[in-house]
Structure formats: structure tokens, C-alpha cells
Amino acid sequence: MGVELGDIFNRHEIELRDLSGKVVAVDAYNTLYQFLSIIRQRDGTPLKNSRGEVTSHLSGFLYRTTNLIEAGIKPVFVFDGRPPHFKARTLEARHKTRDEAMHRWQEAVVAGEEEEAFVHAQASSHLKEGMVEEAKTLLGYMGLPVVQAPSEGEAQAAHMVLSGDADFAASQDYDSLLFGAPRVVRNLTVTGKRKLPRKNIFIDVNPEIIDLAEGLDANGITREQLIDIGLLVGTDYNPGLKRVGPKTALKLVKQYGGVEAVLAEKGVGIENLQEIKDLFLYPEVTSDYKISWGPLKESDIIDFLCMKHDFSQVRVQGALNRLIEASDAGQQTLDQWF
Fold this sequence. Notes:
The chain is 47% helix and 10% strand. It is of the alpha/beta class and 338 residues long. A seven-stranded mixed β-sheet has the order 1-9-6-5-2-3-4, sandwiched between helices.
């Protein structure tokens, strides 16, 4: 998902508390897919209510967002709008990949291969109708601000940091850097112990900070050249060149100056090249948003999660108590806390 640039950027590991007091513009779709992928039972089955509707995403937005708030972080969730037309091929390919993973998951369950089933189940996560609105509803009840992007959420989050309305953009993908986000935080909502797929090994996953200017200076490139590197590696909008990773792409761009010269040298092309470059350089964003923290609507959250979606009232109330305790002197409004 997204462009892979990890090999050419330094990632500075931090603790959640290091972000205390910071406004973080969170790529909501990216986060939603994370929750659908990792919040599952041992055989890969997602959490569901009594009607068979998936609720893993709601669990993530309640409990993991509570962790952020307890750490003093001020999250703002930014949701995608309409995708660029040239992203259609990528979306279609992802849908096919998820369908194939679903089939392999079901086969592994029948075969009693629990660990294999879980791996394929994670890759099968589908965003179903209504999940986005459910997430927005819950976040609203929690008093947390939601921003609707006109197009790509990562572009909007980057714009909010560049505008000074947020301190960091948060996403697992590196696309935020291509969109110009000065500071990006990864692993924000997946912090903790993580089991490596198909291995009996657990690793600690901590938040990581990436500084765009630092990375550009260290590599001796401009942001436009970084976009060129992304295009050579492959983005959400183009497949990239075969056998070209971040380090090779960096070498080629520095040798030839830009992606156009590299493509001319290799005798290949990238479909919609200029449109994709323009998307990263001049993305469709909006400044028509308001970032404010409202009251924590305790009874609405209980009705929504426990009455409608069969969550444990004891566990939900525990999360609510943590949110209240994290607020200013036990006040039940996040706006007073902030």
C-alpha cells in the first residue's frame, strides 16, 4: 500500500508520550484498514456483532484512540474523498488481491492451519459500506475532530501540517512525504507487541518520526526528485519499474537528474506521468475545515457500541473512564482538556 521509501529515510523511534500536546492529522482510511487487518480472532475472523456485521474498526477507534488521548496526543482524523481517475487500476488490483486472500483464508481454516489462516485473513480486509460513516459517528461521540478531504487523505493531512494546523501527519505509508508533509509519524495506532507472520517471534512496535527536510538533505535531493524516486519505485498511481527499489531509484535520479531522463535512458514510459507528478506537487485539498474538540458523549457511545453493536458495556465503560480521567481534572469534555 503506497510507495515504499523506508530504505532512504531515517526513522527516529519515539514513545507516544513524546507527542504529548501535539496535533496529529491521522490518515483515517489507512488507520481503518489497519484495524480491520490486525484486530481479529486467532483464526483470522474479525470481531462481529450478533448480526454478523464486522466491528473490528470500531474497537480500534475506541480503544486505540483512547491510548493516544491518554498519552496527551490531539488526533484529527482525515478521511479520503474521491480518488484520482488514474488510481482505478490500483484499486481494482487491490480488490482482486483481497478476494484471493479471502479464498486462501477459507482454505486454511478448513485445513486447520490457524496461523496461515490469520496471515491470509489480514490481507483479505475489505472496506464495506457503512464502515466509514460508523467510524465518523463514533469519533464524533468521542468529541474528536473529523476532516473530510476532497480527494486523497494523505494530501489533506500534509496540507494541514504545512498550514500549521497540525504538527504531524500520521500514516503507515510514505506518500505523505511525497505530498510535502514536513513531519510524518508512523506506527501511531499499532504501537505494542507484534508477532511476525509465520514466526514465533514478537517484536516491539514503537512510533517513528520521519523529517522530510532531514531526509532530502541526507540524500542530496529536492522534493520533486523524491517524487521522481517514488514514481520509479511505484506509487498508488503507477506500478514503477521492474527491479527498481528506493536505493536504485535514488541512484538513477541523482545520476540523470529526474524521472524523465531515467525513462528516456531505459526506453520505457510511465502512464499519466505528468498528472501523477502534478497530483503530488499540487494536490486537491481544502482549507475549509474546523478543528475543534467537543464533549465526550458517554451515553451515545454506550448506546452505539453496546446496544447497537453488542460491545461489552464493562469494557466500553472502562475506556470511557480512561478518557474522562485523561481530561482536565476529570471533566467530561475533551475541549476543556485541550
